[in-house]
Structure formats: C-alpha cells, structure tokens
Design brief:
elongated; alpha/beta; four-stranded mixed β-sheet
Length: about 260
C-alpha cells in the first residue's frame, strides 16, 4: 500500500443486514406439478409462463394468491424454451431471494450509515445487470432496485457476470418505481436520474447525503415520468462521437463519483 493510500481513512462498507441469498442452479422448472410445487415451496419466481389456450386454473389461482404475475403465451414460445413435456407451464426460478427495500433503508439509518441506493429502470440485458451489480457491491451500494416487470432475469449468466456479487448485495423488486421514488423521498433520500436529457453534469451534484441514483434502459434510457419525479437530473459529459455509454459503464462512473465524494 502506498503512503498516500495509507493516509486516507478507510472507506466504510455498509452494514450487510441480511443473510447471503441462496442460489439455485435451476433456471426454470416445467410441467404442471413441478410448477405447482415450486409455487407452494415459497421460492422466488421471476417469470411464470402459462400456455394461453390451456391456462391451468390451479396454477393461476396460486400465482394470484402469492402475487406472482403470469404471462399467457402461445405454445410456440414455450416450445422455444424447452422441447420437453412442459404441459403448458414454465416457471423461471430466481437465483436469489429478494430483499424488502423498507428494511434496507431502516437498517441503514439504524446503523448510522448514509443510504446509497441504485435504481435500474428497465435494464434488461443480464450481462449489463451482472456487471452493474458487481460494481455496486464493490462500491458499497446498499441495494439495487428493479421493477417487477421489464427487468433482467437474475439467472446463471447474471450471477457469473456479477462475479458472485449478487450473493451479497440486496436486490429489491418493486411493482411501481414511481411509488418507490415517493417512498425514498419520504424517507429522506434525494433521487438523481442519470440521463442525457440533463443540462447539469454528474460532477455538479452532491452525493454525500442519502441518495438514490437511477439508471435507464439500454434502449431508451429513463422514462419521462420517472425523470419528472426525480429531485435532480444529471448527465455524464462526453467528448466523442458515439451517442452514449453502455449502461453498466455509465453506472460505474456515477457510482464511483459518489464514492469519491463520500471518501473526501
């Protein structure tokens, strides 16, 4: 370690308030009975696909009871996933157990730490998500928040790309990011949207107070409704000819600007 680094106070990693999630190597289960047993087991399910023409009532009722959204799809889509006897039902089992955002915020404040939350608005590429999770965990982000629909599936590719970070950083899945922003603002966090539509740069923002940073989808960035709900919007300055950065790279830039400011 250099003398310069030795003179700096160590960056305080946030309190990890939960037990590391249990991973599951099975990305999906298929067949009516297997899907029913998975639903009854209480395992986290990312997606539940049911054949449109033959929707199993018992599966639909149990999914509704547990608050799991069902996608009714044509037989051809199920056959593309597996040619085995799926009987019109496939459930994608999450590789992690999701945390509750309100618990993360409460525990962070109770420990005397400054909340640092990352919200991903419709980031769908699993490798981008895994890379972002790896960066966030290394930087001490307290939690990653995803929408319940339109987010990357947390599967083996995401786990691998995160280099195991998804075993340690809490991930929260929320039905409405708008309501989530309201909750965070009412909890004392400022919400900063990282978007090319901003006039100010990310280097003009103060990240030392409780904060939530929003990164947008690979296709069209952050939705206008979420931008309007944010307390501040900021962009990453660029000098080249390419229109934008990859979302995982952009997330790393603003995450570590937060770390830099908080380490001063």
């Amino acid at each position: 370690m250099s003398e310069e680094n030795a003179s700096r106070p160590p960056f305080k990693r946030p309190f990890r308030h939960f037990t590391a999630p249990v991973t599951d190597n099975k990305e999906f289960v298929f067949g009516v009975q297997s899907v029913l047993e998975t639903l009854r087991s209480g395992k986290e399910i990312d997606r539940l696909l049911v054949q449109r023409e033959l929707g199993n009532t018992e599966i639909l009722d149990l999914a509704k009871e547990k608050g799991i959204q069902v996608q009714k799809v044509p037989l051809e889509k199920l056959n593309r996933i597996t040619r085995k006897n799926h009987q019109g039902a496939i459930a994608f089992v999450s590789a992690i157990h999701y945390a509750k955002l309100e618990n993360v915020i409460a525990d962070t404040f109770e420990k005397g730490e400054i909340p640092f939350i990352l919200i991903l608005d419709r980031v769908t590429d699993v490798r981008n998500f895994g890379a972002i999770a790896r960066t966030a965990e290394c930087a001490g982000v307290h939690a990653i928040v995803l929408p319940s629909r339109g987010a990357a599936q947390i599967n083996a590719d995401a786990m691998k790309t995160s280099s195991g970070a998804l075993n340690f950083i809490p991930v929260c899945k929320e039905d409405s990011l708008i309501q989530t922003i309201d909750f965070l603002q009412n909890s004392g966090l400022r919400v900063v949207a990282c978007t090319e539509k901003a006039k100010s740069t990310i280097y003009e923002i103060d990240y030392k107070d409780p904060i939530a940073i929003i990164m947008g989808s690979e296709e069209d960035g952050i939705t206008d409704e979420i931008i309007r709900k944010s307390d501040e919007i900021a962009k990453i300055p660029q000098a080249g000819q390419v229109g934008s950065l990859n979302v995982s790279v952009a997330a790393g830039v603003i995450i570590f600007e937060t770390v830099r400011q908080r380490s001063i």
